[in-house]
């Protein structure tokens, strides 16, 4: 992905917001990208004007986790579902650096249902409005088509082209069957 975006002309920083690796590179990159503007402001007598950056992206991808690790303390509420960040919030890091935490954003309409499904599977769409059984079925189909040994290796079930049979095998292994073998 780094190569892909660099070829498109973007400045890329590799980081891990959970482990905290690559965080120092963010400040250095922001200062380098804003160097000309900062110098112009200083030439006009404006000293200590903060760099202001906005954190934006689809829901539930770790924007607030990044901010908390970057700041070094919990300033942005996080959760394992979309919609935890409700409004915009400025977070002051240092006297010369501020971040705007924003709620996740999605485009209003998905032309391709496969995109909507994949966003739902990674937790970017609130699963209260989706049928979890249908999502599980579709996820097993995707895994069977693209990673045919993923489910047998993970759960020790037999490979089967029927996603429903695979789900039943997983339920059996995990002890998730209801009375009446449902």
Biggest beta-sheet profile: 3 strands, mixed
- Please, what is the average pLDDT? 83
Our measurement of the CA-to-CA distance between the termini, rounded to an integer number of angstroms, reads 43 Å
Task: Give the structural class.
Answer: mainly alpha
From the spread of the alpha carbons, the general shape counts as: elongated
Radius of gyration over all CA atoms, rounded: 22 Å
Beta-strand fraction estimate: 5-15%
Number of helices: 8
The helix/strand series, from N terminus to C terminus, equals: HHHEHEEHHHH
Strand adjacency order, main sheet = 1-3-2
- Report the strand count: 3
**Low-confidence parts, pLDDT < 50 over ≥5 residues?**
none
The percentage helix is 40-55%
Question: SSE layout and pairings?
Answer:
Layout: H1 2-7, H2 23-33, H3 35-43, E1 51-55, H4 63-71, E2 89-94, E3 97-101, H5 113-121, H6 132-146, H7 150-155, H8 163-174
Parallel strand pairs: 1-3
Antiparallel strand pairs: 2-3
Helix pairs in contact: 6-8
